[in-house]
Design brief:
By secondary structure, the chain is mainly alpha-helical. It is about 70% helix and about 5% strand. Helix 2 packs antiparallel against helix 3, helix 7 runs antiparallel to helix 8 and helix 10 runs antiparallel to helix 12.
């Protein structure tokens, strides 16, 4: 069968699609996680908390599709990355899944009993279900940037030499807190659009503005850390971008400041961090001036810019190794076969627009502010 796209092009396309799915997850499910992280702080009474929960109650399950799509894309397009990361980060993944399980149970069970202690307990469970994954996702990105302690033998068997608590280094914690600030800002912007005018929305605006300021500072600290430390990798020698995938053939070495090299080689890539900083600034302005659309648009742009900054700075790396640079997984040595990538691309071209269209239709039908008064008349609300 003749494949109209060459192997190199397909690999780059799927690298870009993986970024699109991660950004889609962070934007769509990110405000769910942000709202849950804000729940105990922006809402004080039972009515206020129910209103906050119902700002995301109708759509949070659909938003998680992006998470599933991202994991599926890694499994299908980058099987080596899936195998190494999901086995190496096993305890971290288990912690994320355990906290995410709290969300559906919390949504469904919270209002089953009138007990204040019962409901307060589930409110904090929802907080954990929003905060913990957000922190761990950011910590994971920090570890990917510094390199993951794994090595591959000649039979492509992976050996992970790290520990769970070893994931929490100063730099990875900066990335984790950056992730929390980013999604809390995003969740606050969502609440300003969906919650009725009142004290809840005012609290969300204040907390979201504080998160935006923290996000700007943490993003700058992260860039400074990358510029001043030995973190980074680069390719050495001639690289076959269209050869068969074989991670044991990686021509890689560690390089001080290596993650900033792409920005020097391709100045247009600097647009990504600029959009990240500008988006957070725009979200801050929107939150302080009570301009909901500007706040949410700014926070969404910030997510796009921040995640794009990571992807563009690392290209062509996906999962570098900190203990054996030659085991590092890249766009060129860790993908599925030429035929597999092409067939999946056809499926994506067909089904991704359907997912986007259906999602847009759902949001259009369910759009509108949530109010405390509606809780007394609508039996479908949590």
């Amino acid at each position: 069968m003749h494949i109209p796209l060459d192997y190199t092009t397909l690999r780059v396309i799927w690298w870009g699609l993986l970024g699109v799915l991660l950004i889609g997850f962070a934007i769509a499910d990110g405000f769910d996680l942000g709202v849950a992280s804000l729940l105990p702080f922006v809402a004080r009474t039972d009515g206020e908390r129910r209103m906050v929960i119902n700002t995301i109650g109708a759509t949070w399950e659909g938003n998680q599709v992006w998470f599933i799509l991202g994991g599926g894309a890694i499994f299908a397009a980058w099987p080596f990355v899936y195998a190494v990361s999901f086995s190496g980060f096993y305890l971290a993944m288990l912690a994320v899944l355990a906290s995410l399980i709290l969300r559906p149970v919390g949504f469904k069970y919270r209002s089953k009993r009138p007990s204040a202690a019962w409901r307060n307990g589930w409110d904090w469970a929802l907080f954990v279900g929003g905060f913990a994954p957000t922190l761990v996702f950011g910590v994971a990105i920090g570890n990917v940037l510094t390199g993951v302690p794994f090595r591959l033998d000649s039979d492509l068997r992976s050996t992970y030499e790290g520990t769970f608590f070893g994931l929490f280094t100063p730099f990875s914690l900066v990335c984790g807190l950056m992730s929390v600030a980013m999604l809390v800002m995003h969740g606050a912007a969502w609440l300003t659009m969906k919650a009725e005018k009142g004290v809840v929305r005012d609290r969300a605006r204040r907390m979201g503005a504080a998160a935006a300021v923290a996000g700007i500072a943490l993003f700058a600290v992260g860039f400074g850390f990358l510029a001043m430390t030995q973190i980074g990798f680069h390719m050495v020698g001639a690289v076959a971008t269209d050869g068969a995938s074989n991670p044991t053939h990686s021509l890689t070495a560690q390089a001080a400041g290596g993650w900033l090299a792409n920005f020097r080689l391709y100045p247009w890539m600097a647009l990504a961090p600029i959009i990240g900083f500008a988006g957070m600034g725009l979200a801050l302005i929107g939150l302080l001036s009570a301009r909901e659309a500007i706040a949410f648009g700014g926070s969404s742009a910030a997510i796009f810019g921040i995640i794009s900054s990571v992807g563009l700075s690392m290209f062509p790396y996906i999962l570098p190794s900190s203990i054996d640079a030659r085991s590092s997984l890249t766009v060129w040595n860790a993908s599925s076969s030429h035929m597999t990538l092409f067939i999946m691309l056809i499926a994506t071209v067909i089904f991704l627009p359907l997912v986007l269209g259906y999602t847009a239709w759902v949001y259009k039908v369910l759009w509108g502010r949530t109010s405390e008064a509606e809780l007394k008349t609508n039996p479908d609300l949590y």
